[in-house]
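SEVERITY: medium
COMPONENT: batch folding queue
REPORTER: lab tech (J.R.)

DESCRIPTION
The queue accepted two submissions in a row. Attaching both inputs and their returned structure tokens so the on-call engineer can compare them side by side.

ATTACHMENT 1
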Amino acid sequence: MKFYLLLFSLCLIACQYPSEPPISLQDRAEEARRYCQANDFNEDFCILIDMNLHSGLDRFFVYDLKADSIFLQGLCAHGCGPHSWGADESKTKPLFSNVPESHCSSLGKYKMGARGVSSWGIKVNYKMHGLEESNSNAFKRFIVLHSWEAVPDNELFPAGTPEGWGCPAISNQLMREVDVLLQASTKPVLMWIYQ
């Protein structure tokens, strides 16, 4: 009888946790590589944002698809949702939405669009065109990649990165480097925000 109780307990525990390990950055990059090849996107690099990571850790990655390695990385803000703008209340459990005025970031693949003028950071932004149902409203929601003075250059865990209104915001220094890459690209660049 004890054996069956132990077996039952183990089954209950196993059912509470996913049996599959989390998908690695390299696996995401491989999927991104295939997407870029199939859709005539830039095959040299892409941008991967891992929202599974605590917001006080580097989770914005410019991934070199040729060398199969991270080229640049840094902190990245997500949307505050119903929480306070500029705080870090959802640093471990961000909410995601495609709904206008939700102040949430949207998961999915994006095509980086035109370079524009921003009110934030180094005054540069890039329009983001959502390519999936989960982010199809990004352009009309004015979700853009931009820098923000509130995002530091270095990790700040256990504190989180300040949260904005849904845009993936990065540090000024990182934006300067990403801006050079995006301006030089002759093909659309893929950004993939995932969890």
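ATTACHMENT 2
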Amino acid sequence: MLPIDVLSSIAIEEAIAIHKEFGPGLYESVYESVLARRLRGRGLNVERQVQVKAVFDGVTYDPAFKIDLLVDERLILEIKAVEQLSKAHAKQLLTYLRLLKQPVGLLLNFSEATLKDGIRRVVNDYKPD
């Protein structure tokens, strides 16, 4: 199993390559689909639109939310194609990390002129390997 930082690096590398090819302007679903295929091509397990339930006061909400991409059952990737990432996007991803007890997630906004400006790393009780 690859360390989470290695998984993150691979995801960022592939996302940048996709952005260089397509640029901004496509639907989130296109970037998600291409990124999933590229990551699978690198030998990673990738699930798309993973439905996650939540339990509150003994009531199960299924699905409570969907994760765009889940890489090797550990790294959450939230794909955006918006003018600008907001604090709400980061809070959303942090909530996903907390509910799934995962350490790291990436927000990837493909609408930026350069993808480097659209990457946000969100952590939850992260301890480097």
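NOTES FROM REPORTER
The chain has a mean pLDDT of 92.
No errors were logged for either attachment.
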